[in-house]
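Students often ask why inverse folding is considered easier than folding. One informal answer: many sequences map to the same fold, so there is more than one right answer. In these notes we will look at a single instance of the problem. The structure comes first.
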């Protein structure tokens, strides 16, 4: 009985050790070169270039289209939710006001983000020109 217990313990210990040593090796490809890629982050130089040129994410036409699509989906979701909640007309007005305020807050937040991004890109351009 003692030999069986020892064998079982040793087998589980060896299996655990094998799993622990092989798991970092399985993930090693994702952490190798630091020069390749941006590790899930945006390429700031590319974003600044797109911001200056008004292309990519910063293209006014594409942005307007994305915003309109998002707005339509949100309005549809809110209308469905209001129907499920069986809101009265007065409650719906309050509901719409709340969501309108949230949209204004989001628009203000996006303006601040874009301003901050422009400042960062200008600073980066100044630093690059100084070097």
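Output (designed amino acids):
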């Amino acid at each position: 009985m003692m030999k069986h217990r020892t064998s079982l313990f040793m087998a589980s210990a060896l299996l655990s050790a094998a799993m622990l040593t092989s798991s970092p090796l399985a993930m090693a490809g994702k952490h190798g070169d630091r020069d390749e890629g941006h590790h899930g982050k945006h390429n700031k130089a590319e974003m600044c270039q797109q911001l200056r040129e008004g292309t990519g994410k910063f293209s006014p036409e594409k942005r307007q289209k994305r915003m309109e699509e998002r707005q339509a989906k949100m309005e549809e979701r809110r209308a469905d939710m209001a129907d499920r909640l069986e809101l009265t007309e007065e409650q719906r007005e309050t509901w719409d006001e709340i969501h309108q305020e949230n949209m204004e807050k989001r628009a203000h937040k996006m303006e601040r983000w874009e301003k901050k991004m422009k400042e960062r890109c200008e600073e980066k351009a100044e630093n690059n020109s100084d070097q």
